[in-house]
Amino acid sequence: MHVPTLTIILITKTLAAMNNTNTILSTLFAELTPLVESWLNTTIESAVKKALAEERAKARPDVYLTRQETAKALKVSLPTLWKLTTNGSLKAVKVGRSVKYAESEVKRFQQERE
Hints:
Layout: H1 3-59, E1 64-65, H2 67-74, H3 78-86, E2 93-95, E3 98-102, H4 103-113
Antiparallel strand pairs: 1-3, 2-3
């Protein structure tokens, strides 16, 4: 066999192999696409559900304590509670004419004191 014929045979076989590779890749892509889409949908759905659950937990309304309940929980007198409020150590919320303390704020203050 001489060189040009050998070259043509090699080129023909290479092109056939490339065509075969393209067919294999096309088939593989067609089979993997639904699997990847399903995996992405599941992953995104899971992440969104987790994020929503965290947001709902944050959005739950806080329980509010009266001055007396707060003083008892902190084991301080009412005048001491007032001092803690006025110096900014403990945040209070005015509800109508009464003063209330968020339970989360009381817990935060207790943790800082420990």
